[in-house]
């Protein structure tokens, strides 16, 4: 009984050993490498005219591979994770990479690699062993050709490239490339790109309409300039400028007393015995007065003072009595807001245009002319923000406050001229503050105090009664300006799209907003041939048709009449 059991155990162990040996034995490789594997094992020998089946990334001669349908080639310009070639002939490597890049090419007869020589045998060619990662087929092909002194020359009509020998003395070919700008001005970028062009043949042309740069340069220059443009053509940040300007002014004045200026300052007194109003000619009077002011003093040698009655002429007595206080106070508050680009000036002005008259005197040939120009008086704030690191803003602030102070009178060549006198207050400073913080500019205070007194000598110093012979004038002009500026860097999340259907709405066909004026307000003659009821019905019909058209446009259907 034990013998049959031992025999069965030995047979089972033998079968298990045979199965394990078959499982561990690798099968014979009868197919080409999978299409997803870009690396290909090298062939042991290189026959003169090998038959090479297509491979996805690299093609190498393999005599044992059967003829199969070639897999689809990758898209031109696609990045290949791994390219491996071990002892592959140069022409085969060029053919494989050209197929991967989607290029049609042919070898120039001057290229002796792989072509039959004078004895009919193919010329020796170098073997290529490379291992590149994350490159495109075009980049790998150009690097391979450049390494062996070859280049690609493409025919513009047939689009068939020709692999030819590179002339060491020939300059690098020029390539035309167009760069599309996103944010920058082509003129500004052009100034920076021009300095990077080393070849004298290179040219750059801006197109302001499409914001493009047309560049004619070598390939090396194009690569460097492309990186430069990518860095320079960045989105410019914006800064929100919030300003609050508060100006207060106070103008009190006080005038008290009696002003005798009109009587005692310039009193014209004349004495004479002739009250003629017009000059007397030689034929009208034998005693023609010599003086030009009236009354005249007439005196002759026979009768003496003739006529004997004399007259005294003076300007008279006048006085101005004042007993009044005045007070004026004003406050100007302005809160403008504006957004400007980084490093671009922003101007905020709260002004009033004041006229300035330019008068040109007349000459013998030309008549006098007068031209009027205007100047802005008020508050002008010029700000230039510049975004710095760590969310700081560098501000250059130039506030200016101007107003009319007084009128100046000048007499030139007997002509009286008057001109306005202005008060100007300016400040120019440069500060750096964090974004969202407020800068306060103060100290622009002006306080003008004026005191004047006019009195009659001696009489104006008498206690109590001297008030009748004295005039006191006190005035004060005080103003204070405080400016608050808050710069804030605008982020992309701060913008909110506006929802509106304004462009989709149709304009009204009839003017239903303002009805026709009645006979009381209108200057148009009343048309009595049309009854008023007809006009009212017509107006209601127009309003109803307009309402129906609006409702149908919005999809509500017809409106019942």
Share of residues in strands: 35-45%
Arithmetic mean pLDDT = 77
Q: Unreliable segments (pLDDT under 50, ≥5 consecutive)?
A: 16-67, 551-561
Enumerate how many helices there are, as a single number: 7
Radius of gyration: 52 Å
What global shape is seen? elongated
Query: Helices and strands: which structural class?
Result: alpha+beta
Span of the ends, CA to CA: 114 Å
Q: How are helices and strands ordered from N to C?
A: HEHEEHEEEHEEHEHEEEEEEEEEEEEEH
Number of beta-strand segments: 22
Biggest sheet descriptor: 5 strands, antiparallel
* Helical proportion, percent range: 10-25%
Explain what the structure shows.
The protein has 561 residues and is an alpha+beta fold. 17% of the residues lie in helices and 39% in strands. It is built from 7 helices and 22 strands. Strand 18 and strand 19 (415-426) form a beta hairpin. The radius of gyration is 52 Å and the shape is elongated. Mean pLDDT is 77; it is low at 16-67 and 551-561.
């Amino acid at each position: 009984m034990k013998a049959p059991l031992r025999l069965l155990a030995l047979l089972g162990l033998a079968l298990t050993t045979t199965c394990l040996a078959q499982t561990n034995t690798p099968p014979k490789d009868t197919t080409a490498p999978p299409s997803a594997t870009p690396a290909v094992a090298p062939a042991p020998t290189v026959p003169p005219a090998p038959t090479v089946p297509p491979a996805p990334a690299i093609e190498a001669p393999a005599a044992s591979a059967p003829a199969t349908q070639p897999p689809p080639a990758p898209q031109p310009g696609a990045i290949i994770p791994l390219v491996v070639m071990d002892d592959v002939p140069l022409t085969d490597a060029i053919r494989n990479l050209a197929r991967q890049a989607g290029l049609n090419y042919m070898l120039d007869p001057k290229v002796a690699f792989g072509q039959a020589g004078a004895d009919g045998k193919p010329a020796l060619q170098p073997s290529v062993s490379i291992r590149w990662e994350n490159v495109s087929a075009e980049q790998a092909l150009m690097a391979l050709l450049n390494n062996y002194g070859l280049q690609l020359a493409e025919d513009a009509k047939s689009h068939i490239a020709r692999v030819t020998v590179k002339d060491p003395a020939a300059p690098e070919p020029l390539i035309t490339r167009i760069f599309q700008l996103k944010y920058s001005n082509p003129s500004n970028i052009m100034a920076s790109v021009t300095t990077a062009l080393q070849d004298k043949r290179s040219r750059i042309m801006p197109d302001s309409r499409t914001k493009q740069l047309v560049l004619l340069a070598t390939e090396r220059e194009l690569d460097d300039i492309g990186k430069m443009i990518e860095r320079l053509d960045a989105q410019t940040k914006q800064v929100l400028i919030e300003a609050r300007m508060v100006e207060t002014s106070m103008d009190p004045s006080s005038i008290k007393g009696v002003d005798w200026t009109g009587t005692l300052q310039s009193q014209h007194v004349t004495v004479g015995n002739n009250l003629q109003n017009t000059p007397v000619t030689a034929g009208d009077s034998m005693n023609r007065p010599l003086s030009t002011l009236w009354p005249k003093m007439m005196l002759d040698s026979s009768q003496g003072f003739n006529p004997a009655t004399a007259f005294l002429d003076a300007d008279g007595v006048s006085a101005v009595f004042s007993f009044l206080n005045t007070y004026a106070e004003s406050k100007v508050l302005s809160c403008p807001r504006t957004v400007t680009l980084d490093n671009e000036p922003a101007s905020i002005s709260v002004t009033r245009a004041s006229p300035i008259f330019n008068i040109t005197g007349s000459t013998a040939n030309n008549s006098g002319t007068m031209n009027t120009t205007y100047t802005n008086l008020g508050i002008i704030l010029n700000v230039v923000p510049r975004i710095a690191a760590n969310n700081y803003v560098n501000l250059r602030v130039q506030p200016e406050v101007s107003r009319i102070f007084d009128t100046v009178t000048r007499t030139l060549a007997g002509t009286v001229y008057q001109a306005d006198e202005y008060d100007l207050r300016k400040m120019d400073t440069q500060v750096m503050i964090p974004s969202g913080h407020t800068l306060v500019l103060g100290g622009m205070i002006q306080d003008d105090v004026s005191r004047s007194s006019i009195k009659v000598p001696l009489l104006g110093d008498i206690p109590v009664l001297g008030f009748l012979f004295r005039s006191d004038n006190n005035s004060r002009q005080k103003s204070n300006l405080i400016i608050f500026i808050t710069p804030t860097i605008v982020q992309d999340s701060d913008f909110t799209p506006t929802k509106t259907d304004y462009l989709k709405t149709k304009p009204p066909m009839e003017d239903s907003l303002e009805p026709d004026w009645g006979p009381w307000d209108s200057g148009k003659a009343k048309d009595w041939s049309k009854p008023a009821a007809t006009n009212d019905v017509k107006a209601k019909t127009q309003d109803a048709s307009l309402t129906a058209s609006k409702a149908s446009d919005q999809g509500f259907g017809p409106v019942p009449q």
